[in-house]
Amino acid sequence: MNIKNNFSFMLFLGCISSLAAQESKLEKEVAIDLGKGLKIEMVLIPAGKFQMGAPESEKNYSANEKLHEVALTKSFYMGKYEVTQQQWESVMKNNPSTEKGEKLPVTDVSWEDAQNFIEKLNTLTKKNFRLPSEAEWEYSCRANTKTSYHFGETLTPANANYVDSKHGTPIEVGFYKPNGFGLYDMHGNVWEWCNDFFGDYPDGKTTDPKGPEDGEFRIIRGGGFDAVTRLRAAFRNFSSPTDQTKSIGFRLVISNEN
Predict the structure, then answer these.
(1) Which residues pair with 249 in a beta bridge?
(2) Which of 13, 111, 199, 238 has the fewest CB atoms within 10 Å, i.e. the most exposed one?
(3) 217-242: burial string, b at 16+ Cβ within 10 Å, e else
(4) pTM assigned to the model
């Protein structure tokens, strides 16, 4: 290795070491107080690279899931659970959900409704909550796995709330086991709004992608209480930002600016 290449390699190692040192000082979990003992629990998601999408050999692969490398250069905090009706009502003073229950995910909320909630929540907490990007969502769902589901290549009623689980409706958050990052219900229960407009994936490697600049539909991820093939980590779906259904909710992210 010549001097120039050696210097570049050492600089790269230095950057990696510095990033690791910064993240080692961050709390692995934080709880944001909403008052009256109610909290929003958040889990640290480390920066990293992953293969977004699915190989063409994956069962039920779709052409809009083109496999490509994504680098997320900053860690962030993601909600351990989907936003609950109790949390929504604490901030918005109403409950739009068809199926009622404090620990059930809030549903019947549009992308625009979620933005209104986030705006009020940020005013209340002095934090910078937002919806995840589609890339952040899939990276967090996979938790360093490459299989169809973060549990492996198959999903059973013991793993998630979907059609074969026979619930037929959203259930309390956290009922099933979490993934490797400590996140619950990343597969099933309700679809989750992402911030991105729906569009084709870019060609080649990308860094901190935010999706198309405009569009008609917003991304929803995770699959609701429906067919198992729609719960795959790579499966992409979309909905009008004004749609309100009992199968769509959302989960929060806080950027780590350190």
Answers:
(1) 192
(2) 13
(3) bbbbbbbbbeebebbbbbbbbbbebe
(4) 0.90
